[in-house]
Amino acid sequence: MHHHRGKSSERFLNKEIILTELEINPGQTILDAGCGNGYMSKEFSRILNNTGQVYALDPDAQAIETLAQEVGGTNIKPLVGDISQVTELPEASIDLIYLATVLHGFSQTEIDGFKKEVKRLLKPQGRLAIVEINKEPTLFGPPLNMRFSPQELINLMSLIPEQTVAVGEFFYMQTFKNQK
Description:
Layout lengths: L14 H8 L6 E5 L5 H10 L4 E6 L2 H10 L5 E5 L13 E7 L7 H14 E12 L16 H7 L3 E9 L2 E7 L3
Parallel strand pairs: 1-2, 1-4, 2-3, 4-5
Antiparallel strand pairs: 5-7, 6-7
């Protein structure tokens, strides 16, 4: 089991590049899967300007409880859950699924569940954004054999690849579009 409790990649990521590349529009529904402390959920909410909905999903009930206390009265709905399993969210309800520095910790069974749930949740033409650590030696992060290169992500996902963007010195974001 892979846990990030208390750890966050926030300080290493360029949020402005991420937010620009995601092209978020008012009224969208966004799922921040594996949201941790919710720092990106808050950014998504800010851009949506109280339109649309942000679901902040994480299996860490303590993190979700803390986030819920911080974001009351906003368009962020914190949920305890795991994106590698069926969530309580309705089918074809999400415009954007954002997953940052989580996928490398999934087992093959969890990856398979993640792929199924992403397909179930995304609206037609909905997008998936995966942020991962570069597959090169760094002073932190998982072993290289657990990391994904952008091409490995493209080969893994059954979605249309869009672009690969550097989002920090050690990180990239790969985006995909739903084929429906």
